[in-house]
Amino acid sequence: MKVLAVLLAGLTAVTAQSIEIGAPAPGTQFTPGQSTVVMVETPDFLSSSVEVSVAIGIVFCPSGNCPSPSGTLGTLLFSGTYRPQRSESDPFLPPHENYTVTIPANLAQGPASIGVAHFALLADEVQPFLETKSVPVVIQ
Ligand SMILES: *[C@@H]1O[C@H](CO)[C@@H](O)[C@H](O)[C@H]1NC(C)=O
Which residues form the signal peptide (predicted)? Predict the structure, then answer.
């Protein structure tokens, strides 16, 4: 019983630390070479956790079936530190960081997916935590 409680507590911590992609919205259309902001949010930020980094990529999916971001991020658009902050101008936004990235100029038209890999260290155990999220977009 005690073991289960510990396991559940661990699961809660993992869920609570998950990121969300606040921008771009699903289905956003881009032209090759355009720059855009990818907003990475941590809605339930745990102050005991240590944020480390994110990697952001874009993958072209001609058949409409995008590969999982845990398998490939495609073309790397950014990799580096993740330091979520609250916005003073928009206090209702969760802690987040905005990354300005450039859609590759050589990307073909059609469905694509922007993927984010997120690495953090959880709570007092300093447990390594890696997750991936993605959002479907369209190259026109
Ligand atoms: C991030 O971008 C959003 C949308 O453009 C904006 O509302 C927010 O203030 C920005 N956050 C920071 C910390 O600049």
Answer: 1-16
Q: What is the pLDDT of residues 81-121, one digit of tens each?
A: 999 999 999 989 999 999 999 999 999 899 999 999 999 99
Task: Specify the pLDDT at position 15.
Answer: 52
Q: Are 137 and 114 in contact (CB under 8 A)?
A: yes
Contact 73, 130 (CB under 8 A): no
**What secondary structure, in 3-state letters, does 15-68 show?**
HHCCCEEEECCCCCEECCCCEEEEEEECCCCCCCCEEEEEEEEEEECCCCCCCC
Answer yes or no: is pLDDT of 7 > 70.
no
- Return the closest-CA partner of residue 118 out of 110, 129, 103: 129
User: Which atom of ligand 1 is least distant from the CA of 85?
Assistant: 13
Q: Are 64 and 112 in contact (CB under 8 A)?
A: no
C-alpha separations of 51 from 2, 47, 57, 134 in Å: 29, 10, 19, 19
Which residue's C-alpha comes closest to atom 2 of ligand 1? 98
